[in-house]
Design a protein that fits this description.
homodimer, alpha+beta, Alpha-Beta Plaits, 31% helix, 26% strand, globular, Thiamin/HMP-bd_put_YkoF (chains A, B), thiamine binding (chains A, B), Ykof family thiamine-binding protein (chains A, B), HMP/thiamine-bd (chains A, B), MTH1187/YkoF-like (chains A, B)
């Protein structure tokens, strides 16, 4: 949030936490991170969250991979975080903008089919037309077939994780073409026991 | 995020998830919610998150209470969510704006002293001076003695839960005096085993 550590490049960041609702949470978190090829992103983990930064394709690739490897355990897990682009002053990690565009993890994930109920919110900063930009994103989700309703302060997506992550990526990327600084919060669940009761 | 469901009143909302990293997560979540007096807020839970809405004092009171009752179990738990005010169109729950200002839970919480390492980010919407408003909030946290550094896309707080929540509330309330629509993401941990390794 500090101006001093937030360049001019279109580097994308995702600060996230992975929450396994299990006594084995340490193993699940470490396992999901170890199974993910993170070589094309800047990465730093602290005691609260992990921050990855780089080209958009790789940030979204890594995010989906971490989620899917945790979710395939069958445990109730949640990936919760905030995507960001255009934060004024952000330059650290620019070297990661020189890599190719081949998603490192996609081939490993293709066969993992997991339902990914999601709530997300989009924040286009410093823009008077931001509510219209949010409405545009809802249309993207409707076309993708993942939109399942507006709720207070968020929108809901349901569907296969691949479709949900594609919706999130398309929404974020479409918005950042119109607004310099955009953030997007995501709360992506898996295997919730209360899923059927909602 | 839909315009159709987001008044004119200064109702505050907090959409949050409580994540206990434990096989007993259902009991911890239900226990924390049951131990909290939520009579002064509108409340709705779904399979991903809980949304509370009402006067700012009560929304922050309930948020702290839920966190502390979950954290006192000694388990690694996280309260993660987004505070919001001034979302264009928000009116449902206006009846909760008629209650008194006495915090229902504060007296029960006084003796619960728990360290609450926190990452938070403030999003003043539709305002060209938003980076200055964020800097103002950092000053609030410094005065409170809870600020422990800027990180990518967020700021960090450390300290007793009462001081951390007071910092969050003061930061949010000071900002919403200057900007109509403000959101603030919070990621508040407790009892993390990696705390010492950070």
């Amino acid at each position: 949030m500090s101006q001093s550590i937030c360049g001019k490049s279109r580097i994308v960041g995702f600060r996230f936490s992975l929450y396994p609702m299990s006594d084995q949470f340490v193993d699940v978190i470490k396992g999901a991170l170890n199974e993910t090829d993170t070589s094309k992103v800047w990465l730093k983990t602290d005691d609260i969250s992990t921050c990855i930064r780089g080209k958009a394709v790789h940030v979204f690739d890594v995010a989906k991979c971490v989620y899917l490897h945790a979710a395939k355990t069958g445990l109730h897990v949640v990936l919760n975080g905030t995507f960001s682009i255009g934060c004024p002053g952000d330059s650290e990690g620019d070297s990661y903008m020189m890599v190719d565009d081949v998603r490192s993890n996609e081939a490993d994930l293709f066969e993992l089919k997991i339902e990914a109920p999601t709530q997300f919110a989009l924040y286009p900063m410093n823009n008077s037309g931001y509510m219209d930009l949010i409405a545009d994103v809802v249309e993207i989700a409707k076309v993708k077939g993942t939109f399942s309703g507006g709720i207070h302060y968020a929108s809901r997506l349901d569907g296969n994780a691949h479709d949900v992550f594609a919706t999130l990526e398309d929404s974020f990327m479409a918005t950042q073409e119109k607004v310099s600084h955009v953030t997007m919060t995501v709360n992506i669940a898996a295997n919730s026991p209360s899923r059927k009761k909602a």
